[in-house]
């Protein structure tokens, strides 16, 4: 819907998002104090819609009674602008079926672009029935990332992208008989002094790209997880390629390796997976 001209906008003086949520407040068919019904407008019409909806949510979830902060948070999380709130609509229009826990919904994660080699953590949040636990299952996540179920409908994905380009992620959740799947995209970008590695995982060879570096001497060393030096190469080209072999020219076994990359003051260590 469209915000009416009499609605209050945020933020608060200390920068908090306001309003929290929105509801219909224009030409609302309601009881009239002189008897009968009429179409009335104002925030006094929108407020009881949210109050009544919250009462129904508490009736459906007695465990929320006495926990106003949790109830307010569920209203915000169910709203249609939760992932990108603003100071005009706040978190948006609540979905009371979702807020009341009659379905399971993983909150959306917008597309994320970030430089390679930057450690990043994403918090995954789900709204679910209050009487059953949420169980997460990562389906597709970046190689060598770490995913943990933190309980109470929360999960944590920590990762560092090692290649430039897009990475599609899928995470499933189940709460009792309810299921939902989250899909979002992570994009690794090169920047200035950074280097990038790809493809990762790889089958035959893997390349090390040096962003913003021209004509300098590059050095890569490849180590097995045991610490054994497997491969050592100097060069001035871009990229520098490891063809998946050891110092004797023999193909190495599948597994995880660490590439140490040095050039013009850059030193990076990147875990890669050979299939």
Walk me through this protein's architecture.
- The structure is a single chain.
- Helices cover 12% and strands 39% of the residues.
- A hairpin with a 4-residue loop joins strand 13 and strand 14 (229-235).
- The two termini are 51 Å apart.
- The protein contains 3 helices and 17 strands.
- The strands form 5 sheets. A 4-stranded antiparallel sheet has the order 3-5-8-7, covered by helices on one side.
- The mean pLDDT is 86.
- It has 3 domains: 28-99, no CATH class; 105-189, Immunoglobulin-like, CATH 2.60.40.10; 195-274, Sandwich (Immunoglobulin-like).
- It has helices spanning 43-60, 68-78, 96-99; strands at 28-31, 37-40, 105-106, 112-115, 120-127, 135-140, 146-151, 154-159, 165-175, 178-189, 195-198, 206-210, 218-224, 229-235, 240-242, 255-263, 266-274.
- By secondary structure, it is mainly β.
- Point out poorly predicted stretches: none
Please state the average pLDDT score.
Answer: 86
Report the top-level CATH class of the largest domain. Mainly Beta
Shape: elongated
What is the CATH superfamily of the largest domain?
Answer: Immunoglobulins
CATH level-3 fold name of the largest domain: Immunoglobulin-like
Please trace the helix and strand order, writing H or E for each element: EEHHHEEEEEEEEEEEEEEE
Number of domains: 3
**What's the CATH architecture name of the largest domain?**
Sandwich
Helix content: 10-25%
**How widely separated are the two ends?**
51 Å
Keywords:
275 residues; Immunoglobulin-like; mainly beta; 4-stranded antiparallel beta sheet; 3 domains; 4-stranded mixed beta sheet; 3 helices
């Amino acid at each position: 819907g469209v915000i009416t001209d009499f609605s209050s906008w945020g933020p608060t003086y200390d920068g908090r998002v306001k309003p929290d949520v929105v509801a219909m407040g224009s030409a609302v068919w309601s009881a009239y104090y002189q008897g009968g019904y009429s179409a009335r407008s104002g925030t006094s019409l929108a407020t009881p819609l949210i109050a009544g909806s919250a009462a129904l949510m508490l009736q459906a979830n007695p465990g929320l009674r006495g926990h106003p902060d949790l109830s307010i948070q569920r209203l915000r999380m169910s709203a249609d602008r939760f992932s990108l709130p603003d100071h005009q609509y706040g978190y948006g229009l609540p979905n009371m079926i979702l807020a009341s826990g009659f379905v399971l919904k993983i909150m959306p994660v917008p597309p994320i672009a970030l430089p390679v080699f930057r450690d990043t953590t994403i918090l995954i949040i789900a709204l679910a029935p209050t009487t059953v636990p949420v169980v997460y299952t990562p389906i597709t996540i970046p190689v060598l990332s770490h995913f943990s179920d933190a309980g109470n409908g929360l999960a944590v994905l920590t990762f560092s992208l090692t290649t430039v380009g897009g990475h599609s992620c899928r995470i499933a959740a189940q709460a009792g008989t309810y299921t939902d799947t989250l899909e979002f995209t992570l994009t690794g970008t090169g920047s200035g002094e950074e280097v990038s590695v790809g493809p990762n995982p790889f089958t035959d060879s893997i390349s090390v790209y040096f962003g913003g570096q021209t004509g300098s001497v590059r050095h890569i060393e490849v180590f097995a997880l045991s610490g054994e030096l497997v491969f050592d190469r100097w060069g001035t080209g871009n990229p520098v390629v490891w063809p998946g072999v050891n110092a004797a020219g023999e193909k190495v076994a599948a597994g995880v390796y660490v590439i140490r990359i040095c050039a013009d003051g850059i030193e990076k260590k990147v875990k890669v997976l050979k299939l």
